[in-house]
Amino acid sequence: IARTRLNVLGICCAGEIPAIKMILEPLSGVEDVSVNYTTRTVTILHNPLLTPASQLAKALNEARMEASVLHEGPQKSNPEYKRSLWLLVSGVLLVLSFLYLFYLPLQWFAIGTILLGAPGIALKAVMSLKRLRLDVNVLMLIAIIGAMGLQNYIEAGSIVFLFSFADWLQLRAVKKANEALAFAADLVPQNATLADSGLPVPLKEIQLGTLISVKAGEMVPIDGVLISGESSLNESSLTGESRPVAKHVGDNVWAGTVNLSGYLVIETISTAEDSALSRMIKLVEEAQSKRTHTEQVVETFAKYYTPAVFLVATATALIPLLLYTSYESHWLYLSLIIVVVACPCALVISTPVTATCAIAGAAKLGLIIKGGDCLELLASMKVVAIDKTGTLTEGHFRVLDFHVVNSTETPKSELLQRIAGVESHSIHPVATAFVGYVRILGIKPSENVADFKILEGEGVSAVVDGHLIEIGNTRLAFRRNWRTSIFSQHLEEYEKQGATICWVGVNGELVGHFSAADKARSEAREAIENIKNSGVTVLMLTGDNQNAAACVSHQLGGIEFHAELLPRDKVMIIEQLKASVGTTAMVGDGVNDAPALAAAHIGIAMGVAGSAMAMEIADIALMMNDLRRLAVLRTVGKSYRNVVMQNIFFSLFTKLVVVGLAVAGYTPLWAAVLADVGTCVLVTFNGMQLL
């Protein structure tokens, strides 16, 4: 199954989306069709052996949709010269026709405008009628034919020009939404320089583990780990933050970031297709194609609105004729105005154009929102639950000490070697810190590790050199009956300082314990205050002990917390919050957070530093580990909701005004078309303020 994206310039109204699906879905091998009206793209999942990409584009081009296949890598500008030239000629002819007041024969220039633009509208209208659809092309064609039937060629030409001009203007405007993301992707070099030979190699040929070099001023072409050199990198393409970030040996560097100084040697950790920047762009593209709940409600309304208003227009034209009333031309003219009013384009695009722009605008700030529904939920968010370790805290632990308890024949160095061997198989920040602690002591972790297991909510275990090693928290200690009053007072002192206590057992017997300390993120307190000021309740969820949780809570201003939680306990609390408070968000970065992220109304993962599982399950990803972006998310959601409401109001209010003025005899047909297409342009530009 292949995923093909088509650029479809001929989509002039969101009402044409069903027609596009009707054309593509019956084709052999096509499994799914997703249309993004705002960016004029169509994404198709299909079997290329049964239906190649060129055939998909051909099927749409037969309906005058101006489709072309989008290829990976830098995109050349779409050839819009013919469209722009045609529009210019059409406009000149129409302006000349308005000079008929000075020289009557000039009115016939309007027919030139009609001949240039009407055939394309007519062909699309015929394709829609074949599929029994009443879309904007059918409505505009009726208006054009009606105006010509009344021998008002200038108004017919005005309809053609205004309709085409509005489509061209929207196409130019929404191009900014594409460029907002495509710009960063297009800047990424298509070649990487091999560190050993200095030869450039195409990115698609670079394998995992390849050593590449990046000079000062160059852009990192692919994700990797810094092997040699030091520098500061501009990561604004990913995070939206242009402040230089210092990089040292062992740090991760990301494709699309710029090396500001120094010569770097990088070992690649991903392919070009799986880089952080590529992943971000793919997530945003997929998000922009998803339909929101509001969008579905509006489309359902439009589905019945258009036929209903069209029937009213038909009745307005026929009933006076059947009753032999006078001024038949007046009623026919009024019916044509109502036909134009029946076009729901502005209403239908009011939500998707806003969602697309909001998602693209958020992406420039390093906020990856995976769909318009998330935007709607952000606006109504009541409470946010935040994981402690690695989210509210830095997640960079340091081991304070290691105590051997009970008599044991195993030398301490050998015991540390075995414990480090188990911890080296874990991704928990405490485990990483302990392995580093042991290496500093000059001890290499044991490689003879077997039967590694994660003890849910307790810790880890494995067999090392034939011995069962168990490492875990207080819950494991109580289950194993390791924690006695002899050690309690000593350990509680560490816990009150915010340290995490880990117990170690060999073959079921307690042999030692160690403590590791973490600290709250520097921006965490400010971030929590900002969230609270926006009217959202904040609480902390953690599997750590009560004393450590209380210490972090105190550092952050005394926020509510729940400690010593299993993953299922976090899910239960999230479900309770959803039922009692309302829209609930969960913020986390680790594997243990994944169930809670999935359970929340809004799951938010801590970006490129977060786990792959959390990134996959979450609805929103922070590409930068800055909790202050949570308040920005809230602002983006509220701005999106306000703009959507404004657009819906503009769309409906304009229709009502046009009908009212038309009934009173003050609205010419061209003015009704101008009001309709003008509203389309208005809601588009109103949505673009979110870019």
UniProtKB/TrEMBL annotation:
Domain of life where this protein originates: Eukaryota
Bilayer-spanning residue ranges: 85-102, 108-126, 138-166, 304-324, 331-349, 602-622, 643-663
GO MF entries: ATP binding; ATP hydrolysis activity; ATPase-coupled monoatomic cation transmembrane transporter activity; metal ion binding; transmembrane transporter activity
Main location: membrane
Cellular component GO terms held in the UniProt record: membrane
Keyword Membrane: yes
Domain (HMA): residue spans on this chain: 2-68
Record localization: Membrane
Membrane topology annotation: Multi-pass membrane protein
Annotated InterPro entries: ATPase_P-typ_cyto_dom_N (IPR023299), ATPase_P-typ_P_site (IPR018303), ATPase_P-typ_transduc_dom_A_sf (IPR008250), ATPase_P-type_domA (IPR059000), Cation_Transport_ATPase_IB (IPR051014), HAD-like_sf (IPR036412), HAD_sf (IPR023214), HMA_dom (IPR006121)
Family indicated by similarity: Belongs to the cation transport ATPase (P-type) (TC 3.A.3) family. Type IB subfamily.
The name this protein goes by in its record: HMA domain-containing protein
Source organism per UniProt: Selaginella moellendorffii
